């Protein structure tokens, strides 16, 4: 890169993109229309940034993975439309494992957050200040992660969860729940979040009954799943929760009660 330029001539920059002073944008970068890139931002090769994205000063996008298994393979870091990346956040690109790291649309990634290689973040996710996501973490749509949380590699955080700040997460967190305490545990449903997203009372009641059986019946997970199938009528919501539980690779969090 010519050091007198902020932007590599081979970078593909959309229309109406503002770029702050002392920002470096390398080759093999794509930035969509109407983005705002602040001062002192570094955007490395492999960045794929959608439209209407805001990136605040000091952020680093598409840095190479902090993974000893990475050997320079051609991978990307994808930032979805309308997402905001706040100060000094870092989003590494993928490895050969998945080939990409993805942050979805309309997310808020707050200051000093780290999103490691091969993570997949859904849409409308809020990740609060100084949260650290290890490699290959999956966070589903509309999750809210409290500040200063540490999430172990390969963990899966379900849709519409609310995670306590400062949490140490080493298990999967099923959708629609609140998770808190130490060790991280089920402490109830994220009813406030569900109401905000327009869930019907009937749907919330179904979710409540499923988690009553899963966490409050003194059954192990296998028997609780069997009872849920027997007692709760089939529905997309029921099946979504059961699919998550039955396909958990790290095991789901336990109840705090």
Give your account of this protein's structure.
The model is unreliable at 1-5 (pLDDT under 50). This protein has 257 residues and is an alpha/beta fold. It has helices at residues 191-196, 201-216, 221-231, 236-246; strands at 12-13, 18-19, 24-25, 30-31, 36-37, 42-43, 47-49, 54-55, 60-63, 76-79, 84-85, 90-92, 100-103, 108-109, 114-115, 120-121, 126-127, 132-133, 138-139, 144-145, 150-151, 156-157, 162-163, 168-169, 177-180, 185-189, 254-255. Helix 2 runs antiparallel to helix 3 (221-231) and helix 3 (221-231) runs antiparallel to helix 4. It has an eleven-stranded mixed sheet. Strand 25 and strand 26 form a beta hairpin. It contains four helices and 27 strands. The protein is elongated, with a radius of gyration of 20 Å.
Shape: elongated
Unreliable stretches: 1-5
SS element count, helices: 4
Strand order of the largest sheet: 2-5-8-11-14-17-20-23-25-26-27
> Structural class of the helix and strand makeup?
alpha/beta
The helicity comes to 10-25%
Rounded mean pLDDT is 96
- Strand proportion, as a percent range, falls in 25-35%
Largest beta sheet, briefly? 11 strands, mixed
- Taking all Cα atoms into account, the compactness measure Rg is 20 Å
Q: Distance between the terminal alpha carbons, to the nearest Å? A: 58 Å
Count of individual beta strands = 27
């Amino acid at each position: 890169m010519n050091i007198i330029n902020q932007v590599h001539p081979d970078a593909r920059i959309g229309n109406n993109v503002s770029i702050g002073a002392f920002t470096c944008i390398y080759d093999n970068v794509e930035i969509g229309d109407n983005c705002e890139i602040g001062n002192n931002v570094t955007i490395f090769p492999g960045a794929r940034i959608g439209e209407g994205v805001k990136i605040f000063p000091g952020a680093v996008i598409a840095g190479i993975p902090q993974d000893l298994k990475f050997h320079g393979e051609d991978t990307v870091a994808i930032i979805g439309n309308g997402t905001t990346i706040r100060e000094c956040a870092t989003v590494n690109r993928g490895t050969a494992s998945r080939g990409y790291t993805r942050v979805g649309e309309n997310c808020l990634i707050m200051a000093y957050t780290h999103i490691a290689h091969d993570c997949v973040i859904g849409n409308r996710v809020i990740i609060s200040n100084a949260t650290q996501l290890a490699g290959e973490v999956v966070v589903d749509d509309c999750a809210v992660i409290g500040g200063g949380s540490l999430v172990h590699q390969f963990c899966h955080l379900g849709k519409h969860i609310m995670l306590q700040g400062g949490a140490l997460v080493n298990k999967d967190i099923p959708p629609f729940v609140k998770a808190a305490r130490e060790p991280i545990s089920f402490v109830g449903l994220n009813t406030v979040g569900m109401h905000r997203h327009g869930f019907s009372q009937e749907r919330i009641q179904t979710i409540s009954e499923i988690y009553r059986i899963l966490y409050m019946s003194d059954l192990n997970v296998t028997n609780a799943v069997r009872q849920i199938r027997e007692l709760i009528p089939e529905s997309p919501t029921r099946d979504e929760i059961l699919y998550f539980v039955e396909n958990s690779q790290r095991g789901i969090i336990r109840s705090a009660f």
